[in-house]
Amino acid sequence: MTRAGTRDVPALVRQARDGDARSVARLITLVESGTAQLPLVAAELAPYTGNAQVVGLTGAPGVGKSTTTSELVRVLRGRGQRVGVLAVDPSSPFTGGAILGDRVRMQEHATDPGVYIRSMSSRGHLGGLSAATPAAVRVLDGVGCDVVLIETVGVGQAEVAVAGLADSTVVLLAPGMGDAIQAVKAGILEIADVFVVNKADRDGADATVRDLKGMIALAATGPGGWRPPVLRTVAAQGDGIDELVGELGRHLEWLAGHGELAARRARRAAAEVEAIALGRLRGRISTLRGGTRLTELAAEVLAGRLDPYTAADLLLDELTVPSG
C-alpha cells in the first residue's frame, strides 16, 4: 500500500469489507487525519451504510463503561454479529496525547476477526466524542459491522453529544459515586434510552435504582412512548449483559416501529452535513484575502468603527462573491 495521498481507496474499501482489519484501520486513519481523500472514502462507503445498529455508552469515569463494552462485544459475538468499537479517550490539554487505555482493557477480543476496536483521542473536542467519530462510525457501518459501540470519554453531566450519533444511548451509573439524581440531571436523563446501574453487587445499588425509577416516573411520556428501563449489571462478572442486549434490541424495534429510527438517522446525517459545510466555510474564511480579512474586520470592531454583526455580514458577503 502506498502513501495516504495516493492510496487506492476503492481497493481499500473492498479489502475492508472482506474483513481485512488493517484496511479498516487505514480507512479510519484517513478520516481522522482529514486527508483530501476523505470525500472519496465517504463516496465509496455510501452505498453500504445505514445497516449498523449504533449504540452509545456514556457515564462518569469509573462506572465500568469499558468493562460493559467488552462484555457487550462478547454477547453480541456469541450471537454471530460483527461488532465495531470506537472508544474515545481524553486528550492531554498540555501535550495533546492520550493513553487510549480502553483498547488495552478489551484485549480479549483482539484476535477475533469479527471485532474491530479503535481507540480515538478526543483532541479537545467537547461532548465526550472526537470530531472524527461520526466519520469513523460511517466507516464501521460501511465495512459491514452489524453493531457499532461508541464508548465516550466519561466527562460527566455535559457528555450528551453521543445521543445525536447513536440509535440507542446507554447511561451507566454505579452505587457509591454520589447522588443518583445529581448524576442524571442536566441533560443526561433526557438522552438515556436505557439506564444501567453497574457494580450492582455493591451497597447502595437499590437506592440508585429506586432514585432512577422515581425520576423516570416523573418524566412526561406520551402514549406509546419509550420509557427507559433501569437494569442492574455486574459487568466484571458478565451479569445482566444478556438483559442489556435484549433491551437494546427491544429499543431498536420500538424505534423502527414508531418511525423514530429513520428520524434519528436523518438528524444524524443532517448534523454531519452541517459540520462538513461549516468546516469548509471556516477554511474559506481562513484564506480570504490571504488570510488577513478576518483580522482586519476584528480590528475594525475593536476600534468601534464596526459592530460584530455588520462585520460578520461583510465577511459572509465576501465569501459569496463569485471568484474571477
In short:
By secondary structure, this protein is an alpha/beta fold. The protein is 46% helix and 12% strand.
Describe the protein.
By secondary structure, the chain is an alpha/beta fold. Helices cover 46% and strands 12% of the residues. A 7-stranded parallel sheet has the order 3-2-4-1-5-6-7, sandwiched between helices. Helix 5 (101-105) links the parallel strand 2 (83-89) and strand 3. Helix 4 crosses helix 10. The longest helix has 28 residues, at 260-287. It is globular and about 65 Å long. It starts with 8 loop residues before the first helix and ends with a helix. Residues 1-6, 91-102 and 123-128 have low confidence and may be disordered.
End-to-end Cα distance, whole Å, is 39 Å
State the helicity in percent bands: 40-55%
Question: Major sheet, described briefly?
Answer: 7 strands, parallel
Order of helices and strands: HHHEHEHEHEEHHEHEHHHH
The best one-word shape is globular
Largest sheet, order of strands side by side? Answer: 3-2-4-1-5-6-7
Layout: helices, strands, pairs:
Layout: H1 9-17, H2 21-33, H3 38-45, E1 53-59, H4 65-78, E2 83-89, H5 101-105, E3 115-121, H6 133-142, E4 147-151, E5 168-173, H7 180-184, H8 188-191, E6 194-197, H9 205-218, E7 230-232, H10 241-257, H11 260-287, H12 293-302, H13 308-320
Parallel strand pairs: 1-4, 1-5, 2-3, 2-4, 5-6, 6-7
